C-alpha cells in the first residue's frame, strides 16, 4: 500500500532547509524584542521587517507548502487528517498565527507611543519562538521522515513543482532570495 522509500525526498529537504531560516528568524525576533524593551530607537522598523518575514516567508509560504501540498499528500497516504500528527501540526500553525496577531497588535500600539506594550510584544514573541522551535523539531524528526517513508514513489517531482507554484503565488518570484538577504542583514545587526 505504501512506498517504502529509504531515501530522503527533495521536498522535505527543502522544508528542512527553510526551517534553518525560521530558526534564525526566531533568534533575531527575541533579540529585537529585548531591544524594544530597552527602548532602542530604530528597533520598531526592524521589528516590522521580522514580522514581514514571519508572515510571508514562514506562514504564507512555508506553512502554505505544508498545508496545501505535504499534509494532504500524507493524508492521502493514510495518515489521519485529524487527531494524528498532521492535526497537531495544523493546530500549532493556528496557534502561531494568534501569536503573530498579538505581536502585530503590540507593535501598532508601540508605534502609537504606548511604550508599555513592549512587554506584550516580548511575551508573544517568546511564546511564538518556543512553539515554533518545538514544532520544527517534531517535523524534522517525526513528520518529514514519515513523509520520506510513506509517500508514493514519483510524488517528489510533482510536489517540488507545486512548492515552486506556491512560492511564486504567495511570495513572488525573486522575493524568496530577498527574504534570505534581509534575514542575513538583521542577523548581522543583532549579533
Ligand atoms: Fe509546520
Ligand atoms: Fe515546517
Beta-strand segment tally: 0
Helix proportion: over 70%
From N to C, what is the helix and strand string?
A: HHHHHH
Largest sheet descriptor: none
Find the CATH topology.
Four Helix Bundle (Hemerythrin (Met), subunit A)
Superfamily (CATH H level) name: nmb1532 protein domain like
First-residue to last-residue Cα separation:
50 Å
Percent in strands = under 5%
Cofactors, ions and other ligands in the entry: fe (ii) ion
Helix and strand content put the structural class at: mainly alpha
What is the count of structural domains? 1
Outline the low-pLDDT stretches.
none
Description:
By secondary structure, the chain is mostly helical. The protein has one domain: Four Helix Bundle (Hemerythrin (Met), subunit A) (Up-down Bundle). It is 81% helix and 0% strand. It has six helices and no strands. The longest helix has 34 residues, at 43-76. The chain is elongated. The structure holds fe (ii) ion (2 copies). One fe (ii) ion is lined by residues 63, 66, 89, 93, 135, 139.
Pick out its properties:
191 residues, 6 helices, 0% strand, mainly alpha, binds fe (ii) ion, elongated, 81% helix, Four Helix Bundle (Hemerythrin (Met), subunit A)
Short description, anyone?
The chain has six helices and no strands.
Describe the SSE topology.
Blueprint: H1 10-37, H2 43-76, H3 85-111, H4 118-150, H5 155-171, H6 175-189
Helix pairs in contact: 1-2, 1-4, 1-6, 2-3, 2-5, 2-6, 3-4
The chain binds fe (ii) ion (FE2) (2 copies).
One fe (ii) ion (FE2) binds next to helix 1, helix 2 and helix 4.
Amino acid at each position: 500500500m505504501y512506498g517504502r522509500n529509504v531515501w530522503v525526498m527533495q521536498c522535505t529537504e527543502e522544508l528542512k532547509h527553510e526551517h534553518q531560516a525560521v530558526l534564525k528568524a526566531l533568534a533575531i525576533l527575541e533579540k529585537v524584542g529585548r531591544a524594544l524593551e530597552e527602548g532602542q530607537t530604530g528597533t520598531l522598523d526592524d521589528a516590522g521587517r521580522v514580522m514581514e518575514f514571519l508572515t510571508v516567508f514562514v506562514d504564507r509560504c512555508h506553512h502554505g507548502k505544508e498545508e496545501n501540498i505535504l499534509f494532504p499528500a500524507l493524508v492521502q497516504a493514510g495518515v489521519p487528517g485529524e487527531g494524528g500528527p498532521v492535526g497537531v501540526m495544523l493546530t500549532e500553525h493556528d496557534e502561531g498565527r494568534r501569536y503573530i496577531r498579538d505581536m502585530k497588535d503590540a507593535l501598532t500600539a508601540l508605534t502609537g507611543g504606548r511604550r508599555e506594550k513592549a512587554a506584550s510584544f516580548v511575551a508573544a514573541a517568546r511564546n511564538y519562538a518556543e512553539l515554533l522551535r518545538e514544532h520544527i523539531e517534531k517535523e524534522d524528526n517525526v513528520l518529514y521522515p514519515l513523509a520520506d517513508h510513506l509517500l508514493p514513489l514519483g510524488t517528489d517531482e510533482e510536489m517540488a513543482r507545486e512548492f515552486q507554484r506556491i512560492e511564486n503565488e504567495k511570495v513572488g518570484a525573486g522575493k524568496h532570495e530577498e527574504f534570505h538577504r534581509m534575514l542575513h542583514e538583521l542577523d548581522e545587526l543583532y549579533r
